[in-house]
Design brief:
By secondary structure, the chain is of the alpha+beta class. It has two helices and eight strands; from the N terminus they run αβββββββαβ. The chain has a single domain, classed as Porin (Beta Barrel), CATH 2.40.160.
Length: 232
């Protein structure tokens, strides 16, 4: 019994010593050029801002610029391959000529869509793994939550509005350049396909003839820029 107690005490007092050894080991790893390969860190993140172009029924530009802000967190799962989680917030604007089904009046409609989007993507580095500049492509699946208003120029017609969610497919292409061990810049482009033609709400009030000519999937493209960081 005494031997068992002594063994337990020895284990308890040994734990702090073992705990102190791990940071020393990590420090040695860092000194051994831990950041030489840009994918050594398992986690990285980026914060970007960009402009958008909507491709749907109401695709003409307005005086307002469509914009997007995105936060992305990447988790390396193997060399050159990462799993990315993206959260985006933005505003879409557009306009176009449509005929209202209920009133049989043609008018120019302007819409704005305040949205938040969440997506999961598989990201692959497509150039040399040891390069300080990384070119990446990614594809995934996400959901967008929209609050959309469609406003006609003709005051006789009502304003249409709706809140809805729909799935979308995000496709991205970007490059990253790390000018320090932890910080860099990123510039990219994106293409988003939606499983809905309601992003501009045009399908809700147009006639059957126009419905046949609707795009089955609304699309918006974007160009973004921002900062990227490596997380330990």
């Amino acid at each position: 019994m005494r031997k068992l107690v002594l063994l337990l005490l020895l284990c308890v007092f040994s734990l702090p010593i073992l705990a102190q050894r791990k940071p020393n080991f990590n420090t040695i790893d860092r000194k051994a050029n831990l950041y030489k390969n840009s994918y050594k860190n398992d986690y990285s993140a980026s914060f970007t801002y960009g402009i958008l172009a909507f491709k749907g029924e109401l695709k003409e530009t307005t005086e307002n610029q469509s914009t997007i802000q995105t936060i992305t967190i990447n988790k390396r799962i193997r060399k050159g391959l990462s799993l990315s989680t993206r959260v985006s917030f933005g505003e879409l604007y557009g306009q176009g000529i449509l005929n209202d089904w209920d009133f049989d009046i043609t008018s120019n409609y302007k819409f704005n869509n305040s949205f938040s989007a969440y997506s999961l993507l598989m990201k692959r580095q497509i150039n040399n793994q040891k390069s300080s500049v990384r070119f990446n492509t990614a594809i995934g699946l996400g959901v967008i939550s929209s609050k959309v208003n469609s406003i006609p120029d003709n005051s006789i017609l009502p304003t249409y509005y709706s809140n809805f969610n729909t799935l979308f497919i995000p496709i991205t292409l970007d490059f990253e350049y790390f000018f320090t061990s932890h910080f860099g810049i990123t510039i990219g482009s994106e293409l988003n396909y939606f499983f809905s033609d309601m992003i501009d709400y045009a399908a809700e009030f147009i006639d059957e003839v126009q419905i046949k000519n609707l795009t089955k999937m609304d699309v918006f493209t974007g160009f973004t820029a921002g900062i990227c960081i490596k997380l330990e």
